[in-house]
Structure formats: structure tokens, C-alpha cells
Amino acid sequence: MTPRPPTDVSVCIVSWNVRDDLLACLNSIYGPESRVSFEVIIVDNASTDDTVAAIKQHYPIVKLITNEENRGFAAGCNQGIQQAGGRYILLLNPDTIVPLNALDELVSFADEHPQAGIIGPQLLYPDGRLQYSCRHFPTVAAALFRHTFLSRLVPGARSVTDYLMSNWDHNETRAVDWVSGACMLLRRELIEDIGLLDDQFFWGSEDVDYCWRAHQAGWQILYTPQPQVIHAVGHSSNKAVIPTIINFHRSMYRLYSKHLAGWFGSRWLVGIGIWLRAALLIGHTLLQRIFSTRRPHQRR
Q1: Surface-to-core class of residue 65, CB atoms within 10 Å of its CB (0-12 exposed, 13-18 middle, 19+ buried)
Q2: What is the distance of C-alpha 271 from the center of its chain?
Q3: What are the pLDDT digits (tens) for 244-298?
Q4: What residues are paired with 44 via a beta bridge?
Q5: d(CA 87, CA 94)
């Protein structure tokens, strides 16, 4: 009997309470006929919005893994990877729309660049604006100036521009430090070489960490402007803003401790800075909620 050829790409999606986004994402994947063979693996992190029932009804073909609790993004990805049979594994957020022939283009590009362990396509917001989905590795200065009050005091800070690579038009293939885990193609040989994602990153920085480890092992990280994947950003995290801020900054500290920390005291100082940043963002969120609830009463 002739052995069955391997699947070209396993698409792994981790979901949490984004049923409608996930169904739209699956519609885009299964809509056009693809030249490459693929499978879809969904890991649901204990959604309460009938995601599991909807998937079983509309897409019984997918491999569905259901968790009894929210295990986080990295752990969910690892569950999917362990069930994947593809030559490549595409980590894909549920709030994405995959264009016609995107899987074909990604697999073709990866086959042409065997030195690349990780490949990231161009990501666009739903309104067509560019997302900075490939970046330089983060620095303490970039973290201090990005999304804090310091960004208003020093708009256009060079540390942030360098980090985001925003002085480049993103219209050519380029080797980069890291690409966004919202749509990240992994070569199976890379996974066999460096292992799974670090599941201690509950949400945030797991993609930076994995790309860092890939670089350390001698693999190349490539960004390609084609295909262009639509990414809505934050639809899961918007349902739990304050826990997301906490988890994001906890992951930020873990990333610093693993790859950036120098002398012991720096961990203490940077740790204070990270949690102060988190506290400011939480405070800002709470103030927005207070004012948003008061506005209707003020108009009466």
C-alpha cells in the first residue's frame, strides 16, 4: 500500500469566547479550494459562549480539543502542536481572516526558504491599516515609552520606532528578530530542535520568547508581505481587560528574566517598573469605566 503523503500544514487555533470571530476565520480557511493539504486543530480554553457546540455543528471536520479551564495561549498552542501532523504548523488567532490562497503562499514561501524556522506574513487591521507584526527584540526603553504617559511627553521616541520597525514600509521580505504569534508559521524541524512554546507565558511575549530561542539555535525568522492576513486584535482580551493587563505584564517580566536580565538588582528594578506600568494601565482602565458610566446621567 502506498503510504499517505504528510499533511502540508496544520492550522492550530486557540479560542476563548470568540465564537463568531472563530466561525468567520474558519469560513475564510475552508472557503477557497487550496492546493496544499491542511488540517485545522482548535483548542478551546473553556469558552462559555457556545463555541464548542457551534464548531461541532458547522465544522465537524476540525480536530477539537476542549479544556475545562483557560490554560492560556502558549499551553493551548502546545496542545494543538502535539496533535498536528503537518510539515508546517500555523499558529493562528481566531480573530483573523485568511485570504484566498494564503496557505498555498505560506507553504510555497517556506519550501523556498528552508533556513527559516519561523515565518510571519503581513498583518492588516480590518480597515486596511498596517500592523507592525514583525519587530526588533524589545528593550527596557521601548517598554517605558510605549503605551505609557511617557509616550505623550516624548512622541516618536526612537526606542519605540526601532522596536516597531515603523520607519520601514513592510513591503519586502526581510529577516527580522520576531514575528507576531497571531499568524506564525513554524517548521516542524524547528519544533523538533527547540521544543514547544514556554507555557509559563499565559498570554503575551510567548511569540517573542519562541523567536528568541529559534535565533539562539541558529534558525532564521522571516517576514513576508504576502499573503496579507486581516487581524482584528484583542477580541478575546477585551472581554477581560484587567486580567489581560496583569497576565501581559507577568509575561513581560518572565521574558526579561529569561533573556534580558543582567545583574540581580536589575530584575528588582525592572520588576518594579513593569508592575508600576501595569498599575497605571489598570488605573486608566478603571477611570475610563467610571467616566463612561457617568456620561449618560450627565446628559439628562
Answers
A1: middle
A2: 23
A3: 788 777 878 888 878 776 655 566 666 677 767 777 777 767 777 776 666 554 4
A4: 15, 66
A5: 21
pLDDT for 222:
98
Domain ranges of the chain: 7-132+170-233, 138-165
Say how many CA atoms lie within 13 Å of 289 toward its Cβ. 8
Amino acid at 288: Q
pLDDT tens digit sequence for 215-232: 999 999 999 999 999 999
Q: What is the pLDDT of residue 238?
A: 57
* 197 within 8 A of 74, measured Cβ to Cβ: yes
Q: Per the structure block, which three cell numbers stand in for 89?
A: 504548523
CATH homologous superfamily of 7-132+170-233 = Spore Coat Polysaccharide Biosynthesis Protein SpsA; Chain A (3.90.550.10)
